[in-house]
Design a protein that fits this description.
The complex is a heterodimer of chains A (275) and B (585). Chain A is an alpha/beta fold and 275 residues long. Chain A is built from 10 helices and 10 strands. In chain B, the strands form 2 sheets. Chain B has a two-stranded antiparallel ribbon with strand order 1-2. Chain B is globular, with a radius of gyration of 27 Å. The termini of chain B are far apart. Classes of the chains: A alpha/beta (275), B mainly alpha (585). At the A-B interface, helix 2, helix 3, helix 4 and helix 5 of A face helix 17, helix 18, helix 19, helix 20 and helix 24 of B.
Chain lengths: 275, 585
């Protein structure tokens, strides 16, 4: 079953074609990676899927439904959630509040209910809080619910961002460099977590990643972008030996060289958290 | 020029000169002279003297703090040097004032002023006294600085309280006189209450206060008493909540008790304070009502609205048009017209909201500013004169009534404001901790991410604008009913600025902060009539000082406090789950 389909998606910024005719299919319950050198258009593609950009050409289907041109909040309601390359938490809200904002689209209380706090609203809020705590425990953040998000250590902030995205119960989770700036042990536990998300929650995962160890380790399918165009797609094994991919990463002439599976040709530098 | 940090002495001189400069400024704009007849301590010193000596004291104190000398002797010497410098600057002003006529340049540089500055002595004696007083003040600043921390804060607070009591002497006397008047009419069984009031009156009139200011002996006793009280209070260990804990049951109970106490106090205020204060209370109430509304827009949702007066104007004018027989369109009663006025305000909120949805920060501020001016100019225009009265405004606006009783007196309207404030504060408080409140907060923090979380930014922002407009419109209708007339010139830009300032001073996003801000910015200047002329000067100075020293406001929201002052180390320590999560069913 295919969950997400991107058909001939093209996005232009003035004269620059950031995405050229991208065709991509994400299978349900897959772990699918998008890789490519810096500026290849990976994040632009994510922005098109989540509704932040409206592609000039092509369409994006979720579960067979056309979501091209919908506003980001509608897209989220239909079941897509994302995290960001540089962590973007609500820094001055508590950890639990961050999760509760993530649940926004699942909650229903309106302005009157909020003001009068009727039994239905109380019940909903109580259940939401319970669910938030449960989610935090699932991600290993139990007991930190009342801290300000900005006071969490870096690794926990990444986890919280993931928890916030999961709070909307998405069918498809887009992760933009989930291991950026992490040390090897943190990276390993993030990889385990991504596996658990798919296996235990049944979430389909589409991720952008620079660390080849991660990409080759967890992906079932890899799509490679370069200069806005799709240049290859396949299993980790196929991609590792694809001369076009090696050329895109290392330049012409390097294509003949053997590239080992464990080497990472582009490790993302630790991203300082945005102020 | 050396590039190393200035030495202690240089700093002391520098701060002393700044202190003197501030004192000279206050003197030349006329504040010192305006307050020269108001004694704080009878026959000892006046508010005018406080105004030109306090800067020397405060800046000497900061100089000592900056230098942070190891030896107390150096601290004392630095303080005295700093005070001396300040005194010298004032001395120069006195010499200039006595030799040249600088009045053409400085209107307030009158001979009276220089007499005041020279402690009623000649030029030479005055300058010498100023230098000596400067030395003493510097020494006092150093003395206070060298006290142990707990004692120091007790001394400073007691001094401020004595100053305040001296300042409001007239008000206390007026209030007590009113009580005495009322007590005379007490029935026989309440004679004991009368006796207490007479006793109090005697205490205030004869023992504590002189004809102007506090009696010297009483001032000293009051200072010691308040200082001791403060010292004792600061000894009680207080558990500061380092983390944000929302909706803890015990916290809610305490909050309910506080609320009940506040409600009783507010209900009893007019009879306690008397008629003289009703006008001031009404003014404060009006601004609290508007402040609560703007607090939703600016404090909760982070949308800087500088044209807030527009909704107030629309509420007031709709009420006027619908009820005034002068225009003769509808002649509705206040209560009949109220829903229409509120609907009109909300619609205006949405109409303003729609075009500015994409704007943020300063762009939004400018557009809303323009919107406020458009509304005022429309009300003023000849074009709409047949309907809105142009410069003449609209008179004979209906006043609200309950049964046959018309709420016309200022005390009646106070209760109307009180009911309005109670409703609005309740709404604001409930909304803050709800799905909607969280959505506003998230939009304020990061709009893109908030929309990616499924928050509809259009609807959520419009909701903030509409709620703010609704509450402002409500304030406008009560304002119109209070004056029974509206004029375009009472809808000017300064109203918006006042409301915004009171929110900032009170604490952005804090509901109690709105009350505190309104009392400080609107209530206090009305109480001290001499201040009226310097109102906006005081606003500006207060805003600058607040932003530098206490940007979170006087009664900050807990979140803002944590945001602006980096979290205490304990806040980072995670606690076991069982402690953080109270059992819930």
């Amino acid at each position: 079953m295919t969950l997400l389909v991107s058909k001939n998606v093209t996005k232009r910024f003035g004269g620059l074609e950031a995405l050229k005719d991208i065709n991509l299919e994400v299978k349900e319950q897959a772990i699918h990676s998008v890789i490519g050198p810096n500026g290849a258009g990976k994040t632009t593609f994510f922005n098109c899927v989540t509704g932040f950009y409206n592609p000039e050409v092509g369409e994006i289907l979720l579960d067979g439904r056309n979501i091209t041109g919908l506003s980001p909040d509608r897209v989220t309601k239909l079941g897509i959630a994302r995290t960001y390359q540089n962590i973007r938490l609500f820094k001055n809200m508590t950890v639990v509040e961050n999760i509760l904002v993530g649940m926004h689209s699942l909650l229903k209380s309106g302005i009157i209910g909020s003001a009068l706090r009727d039994p239905r609203t109380r019940k909903e809020e109580g259940e939401a809080l319970e669910e938030a705590r449960r989610l935090l425990r699932f991600l290993g953040l139990g007991g930190k619910g009342d801290l300000m998000a900005k006071n969490l250590p870096y690794g926990d902030q990444r986890r919280l961002e993931l928890a916030r995205a999961l709070a909307s119960k998405p069918k498809l989770l887009l992760l933009d460099e989930p291991t950026a700036g992490m040390n090897p042990s943190e990276t390993q536990s993030m990889m385990n977590l991504i596996h658990r998300l798919r296996d235990e929650l049944g979430t389909t995962i589409l991720l952008i990643e620079h660390q080849m160890r991660v990409v080759m380790g967890i992906s079932e399918l890899i799509t490679v972008l370069d200069y806005g165009a799709k240049i290859a797609e396949g299993t980790p094994k196929e991609i590792q030996n694809n001369p076009k991919v090696i050329e895109a990463y290392l330049g012409r002439g390097s294509a003949q060289q053997q590239v080992s599976a464990s080497s990472s040709f582009d490790t993302a530098s630790p991203t300082p958290s945005a102020t | 020029m050396q590039t190393k940090a200035p030495s202690s002495w240089q700093q002391a001189i520098q701060w002393g000169l700044i202190g003197g400069g501030v004192a000279v400024l206050l003197a030349l704009i006329g504040m010192v002279d305006a307050f020269s007849k108001r004694f704080i301590v009878a026959n000892a010193f006046t508010m005018g003297q406080v105004l030109f000596l306090a800067p020397l004291l405060i800046l000497s104190y900061s100089a000592i703090g900056r230098i942070a000398a190891k030896s107390p002797i150096i601290s004392v010497l630095a303080g005295m040097l700093s005070g001396l410098m300040g005194g010298a600057v004032l001395g120069v002003l006195v010499i200039i004032g006595n030799t040249l006529n600088i009045r053409p340049m400085f209107r307030n540089a009158s001979p009276d002023l220089f007499k005041e500055l020279a402690f009623n002595q000649g030029a030479t004696g005055g300058v010498l006294s100023l230098l000596l007083v400067g030395l003493v003040i510097g020494a006092i600043a150093a003395g206070v600085f060298l006290l142990p921390k707990r004692l120091r804060s007790a001394v400073i607070q007691a001094a401020i309280w004595v100053l305040l009591v001296g300042l409001i002497r007239d008000l206390i006397i007026t209030i007590v006189a009113q009580w005495v008047e009322k007590a005379n009419a007490f029935p026989a069984w309440a004679q004991w209450a009368k006796a207490i009031i007479l006793l109090l009156s005697g205490l205030f009139n004869k023992t504590i206060f002189a004809a102007s200011g506090i009696k010297p002996v009483s001032a000293i006793i009051l200072f010691i008493f308040l200082g001791a009280l403060q010292f004792w209070r600061s000894g009680i260990p207080r558990q500061a909540p380092p983390r944000l804990a929302l909706n803890k049951p015990e916290q809610q109970r305490r909050r309910l008790l506080t609320l009940a106490g506040a409600a009783i106090l507010f209900i009893l205020l007019p009879p306690i304070l008397g008629i003289f204060f009703a006008e001031i209370l009404d003014n404060v109430g009006l601004y609290i009502l508007m402040g609560l509304g703007l607090n939703i827009v600016v404090g909760f949702a982070g949308l800087l609205d500088l044209g807030y007066v527009a909704f107030y104007a629309i509420g007031a004018y709709t009420m006027a048009v619908l009820t005034s027989p002068e225009l003769g369109f509808f002649n509705l009663t206040y209560w009949q017209a109220l829903p229409f006025a509120l609907i009109a305000s909300v619609m205006a909120g949405v109409i303003l909201g729609l075009p500015v949805l994409k704007m943020r920060g300063d762009y939004l501020a400018i557009v809303t500013l323009g919107f406020g001016e458009i509304v005022r100019l429309l009300a003023l225009s000849d074009w709409l004169r047949p309907w809105l009265g142009g410069t003449q405004g609209i008179q004979q606006i209906a006043q609200p009534h309950i049964g046959a009783k018309v709420l016309a007196s200022q005390q009646d309207l106070y209760y109307l404001f009180l009911v309005g404030i109670a409703i609005v504060a309740f709404f604001a408080w409930r909304l803050k901790d709800s799905r909607i409140g969280r959505a506003w907060m998230a939009l304020r923090e990061d709009e893109d991410v908030a929309t990616a979380m499924g928050i509809n930014n259009v609807a959520t922002k419009l909701l903030a604008f509409a709620s703010g407009a609704l509450f402002s419109g409500l304030a406008g209708t009560i304002f119109a009913a209070k004056l029974t007339s509206v004029y375009p010139h009472s809808m000017n830009f300064l109203v918006s600025i006042n409301v915004l300032s009171l929110i900032i001073i009170g604490g952005m996003g804090s509901i109690p902060g709105v009350f505190v801000g309104a009392l400080v910015l609107i209530g206090a200047p009305d109480l001290l009539r001499e201040f009226a002329e310097y109102r906006y000067l005081a606003y500006g100075a207060l805003l600058v000082v607040m932003m530098l020293t206490r940007p979170e406001g006087l009664w900050p929201e807990e979140r803002r406090r944590l945001e602006l002052h980096e979290a205490e180390p304990e806040a980072i320590e995670p606690v076991p789950e069982t402690e953080a999560v109270p059992a819930r069913q």
